[in-house]
Amino acid sequence: MTDLLPLWRDLLLGGFILLAYTTEAMTGFGSIVIALSLGALILPIDDVQTVLVPLNICMTGFLSWRHRNHIDWRLLGRLIMPFMLAGTVLGYWVQPVLGGALLKVGFALLVLWFVLRELRRAARGHVAAPKSGWWSRGIVLGAGVTHGLFASGGPLLVYGLAGLSLDKARFRATLILVWFSLNSLLTLLYLNQGRLQPLAPHVLAYLPLIPLGIVLGERLHHRVDEVTFRLWIYRVLAVSASALLLASLLQLG
């Protein structure tokens, strides 16, 4: 029986990864925060994160090229990438100091607050207004910090972009390129640290799940209307944050 435990663990993590990358192919974000939150229940968070990041660049690299005509280059260059990149470097640099379970609990609670707030607004028919310039930049910078810490900058970035006139195709394509760029940087940093090399066989083992997740996510993306798409985003965030909160509380216990 004990010999089967690693197999069940690997199969379960594979299921989490397939769910996560199907979601990202559909919505443009959420893969790492979902898989990391769920995977942390059965494996160390650092190991799961190190496997997920290079897998993510395989999927987002393909999708970025495929949907390159929908990328909002102006938004990417003026707001998202400068502040996300700076925040990611900062988050990676302070990770040894701030990367504990308490910070993950705070992050999960912040995401849950945002989700409940936006779902309440949606139920009342309220349309989110664009954030002011410096407030928006601050949120995007914070998203970069959480990406450097947990490779999970999607929730705060979505919050920072709320109220902008982006249809679902531009929203998804732009975010996917962000994750491809930042996760390529993190992969190089993991290689430099020596974190990735021991886990490379696991990355290769889960690689076949990427095309399957892309096919499933693409089909769902084209079958879902704009309003439902937005609700999907909030539901993804709610599940992700709840799982992350649970994993962090278990770690504290």
C-alpha Rg (nearest Å): 17 Å
- Average predicted confidence as pLDDT: 83
Question: Which structural class is indicated by helix and strand composition?
Answer: mainly alpha
Give the terminus-to-terminus CA distance: 27 Å
Give the low-pLDDT segments: 1-5
Beta content: under 5%
- How many extended strands? 0
Structural domains: how many = 1
Helix content bin = over 70%
Main sheet: strands, sense, barrel: none
Number of helices: 11
| H and E string | HHHHHHHHHHH
Assign an overall shape. globular
Short key terms for the protein model shown above:
disordered N terminus; 253 residues; globular; mainly alpha
Folded structure, characterized:
This protein has helices at residues 5-27, 31-39, 45-66, 73-98, 101-123, 133-150, 154-161, 168-193, 200-206, 209-223, 226-252. Mean pLDDT is 83; it is low at 1-5. The chain is globular. Helix 1 runs parallel beside helix 10 and helix 4 packs parallel to helix 8. The chain has eleven helices and no strands. With 253 residues, the chain is mainly alpha-helical. It has one domain. The protein starts with a helix and ends with a helix.
Précis, in short:
By secondary structure, this protein is mainly α. It has 11 helices and no strands.
What's the helix and strand layout?
Blueprint: H1 5-27, H2 31-39, H3 45-66, H4 73-98, H5 101-123, H6 133-150, H7 154-161, H8 168-193, H9 200-206, H10 209-223, H11 226-252
Helix pairs in contact: 1-2, 1-8, 1-10, 2-3, 2-11, 3-8, 3-9, 4-6, 4-8, 5-11, 6-7
